[in-house]
Amino acid sequence: MHSAYYDVIFERIETVPGDDGQSVLDARTVRVKKFNRTTYVINGGWIARRPLGKSTSTNMSGFYFDGGEYKIFFSKVFGFCDFKILPGHKEIFEDFEAHTTIPVPPEACPYPAMDKEVVNYALKKEHYNFIPPGLPGEQWRININFGEDGVDWGGINIYIVN
Fold first, then answer.
1. 53-77: string of b/e by CB count within 10 Å (b at 16+)?
2. How far is residue 161 from each of residues 64, 75, 113, 137, measured CA to CA in Å?
3. Which of 13, 24, 21, 104 has the alpha carbon at shortest distance from 57?
4. What is the dihedral of CA 42, 37, 131, 153, to 10 degrees?
5. Whole-number pLDDT of residue 122
6. Considering its fold, how many domains does the chain have in total?
7. How many CA atoms lie within 13 A of 131 on its CB side?
8. Which pLDDT tens digit goes with each residue over 11-55?
9. Residue 95 lies in domain
């Protein structure tokens, strides 16, 4: 099954603390709300506590829900600046930034530390290709964790349903 056939709805986003008890990306005030009959959007405060650059390790892992637990489907590690310009990621990043109060271009490296608002961001169907073909189940979690020099900076978990 090709990912374009998924009908993705954001369920929630949670902030995951790092070694210092905080997350480099703070999404605690981000909420998912129903925008209209078929669309859910993300709104709220988004804080990058420090710059994210080439040496920032970015671990993206995908999980599917089965038998009462999330099971890993894939995991990849990139430098942050490479991660955000990968095919599929770049388009999502550009669209996400266009829905913020302080847009950052995808080629910006490092990504600056800042506090901004996300306003009515909905993942477009043409960007569903970030979901690997054949992902089992109907409930998924995408973990994105950051770090540098062996120090865990925390990250975010994105819960989505099909």
1. eeebbbbbbbbbbeeeebeebeeee
2. 10, 19, 30, 9
3. 24
4. 20
5. 84
6. 1
7. 31
8. 889 999 999 999 999 988 898 888 888 788 889 999 999 999 999
9. 3-161
pLDDT of residue 127: 59
Report the distance separating Cα 63 and Cα 29, nearest Å: 24
Retrieve residue 36's tokens: 């209209």
Task: For the chain, list the strands marked E by DSSP.
Answer: 9-16, 25-26, 31-34, 40-48, 57-66, 69-79, 114-121, 139-148, 151-161
Q: Which two tokens stand for residue 147?
A: 């770090």
Q: CA-to-CA distance for 147 and 158, rounded, in angstroms?
A: 18
Q: What's the token pair of residue 28?
A: 């605690």
Q: Which two tokens stand for residue 33?
A: 């709300």
The CATH number for 91's domain is: 2.70.220.10
